[in-house]
Amino acid sequence: MDMGIAGRRALVCAGSKGLGRGCAEALAREGVIVTITARGKEALEKTADEIRAAGGKVTAVAGDITTPEGRSAALAACKDPDILINNAGGPPPGDFRDWTPDDWMKALNANMITAIELIRATLDPMIARKWGRIVNITSGSVKSPIAILGLSNGARTGLTGFCAGIARQVVKDGVTINGLLPGPFDTDRLRSSMEFEARKAGRPVADIAKERAQNNPAKRFGTSEEFGAACAFLCSAHAGYITGQNLLMDGGAFNSSI
Ligand code: NAP
Description:
- By secondary structure, the protein is an alpha/beta fold.
- Helix content is 47%, strand content 15%.
- It has helices at 18-29, 41-53, 68-77, 101-129, 150-170, 188-201, 205-215, 224-234; strands at 9-12, 33-38, 57-62, 83-86, 132-137, 175-182, 246-249.
- Helix 1 (18-29) crosses helix 8, helix 4 packs parallel to helix 5 (150-170) and helix 6 (188-201) packs across helix 7 (205-215).
- It binds NADP nicotinamide-adenine-dinucleotide phosphate.
- NADP nicotinamide-adenine-dinucleotide phosphate binds next to helix 1, strand 2 and helix 6.
């Protein structure tokens, strides 16, 4: 299926690895001109080279997307994107008794306010052009909270609530805003959270990984390629009537009829 977005410009935040990278690759494959960001320059340049080698058009901008400077650099390289993929590293796991207001402010900044700031900077030009796609990479924890990820549960639900409101205001102008909610995807992030779990339980990480995969109805973790393909569809010309939605990609782990 032709996604109908060749020549559009996308800013993919936190796109050197994992889910962000999957989105950048899928969009580049559709002929979208992509800008990717990440803090680590080496991995970022490597990803950009690999996207180029596969025929994609990509610019790499090193910087921390959770800072005003990082966002300015990203937006300077990709002024007025047609497509915005909001993403950043997730907050650390832990026990809420240990979290200070500063820990909460960091999580809210990274996983809520950063996305809102980027939406604030890009939404009106999208409205003026009568076309735009915004996808927030959040987490399955928005729908089904994960006990050790309280900072993530809180911050991402805040972003989701905010976007539910504005999505309905801008769809008439051709702009959609949706959430993509990853369950367990085979990335560095998942591996580090399983390492945390293994240390806590005093068990080998390989056992935790096997158990977690087996507990999923799909009997495996998701891949960044699958995630990117869903993102490309939400950003496609065909998805203009899908807005304010939160697509859970978890192999069916969340058990519900609808
Ligand atoms: P990942 O494989 O660890 O990749 C994270 C990417 O984000 C890297 O490219 C990293 O590069 C970049 N990044 C992190 N912090 C950044 C910052 N402040 N500014 C710019 N770039 C930054 O993680 P992932 O699995 O793709 O996860 C992406 C998001 O989905 C996270 O918020 C994660 O919590 C959430 N999530 C993931 C899963 C899963 O199973 N994988 C499940 C639920 C939710 P640098 O480190 O070089 O900056």
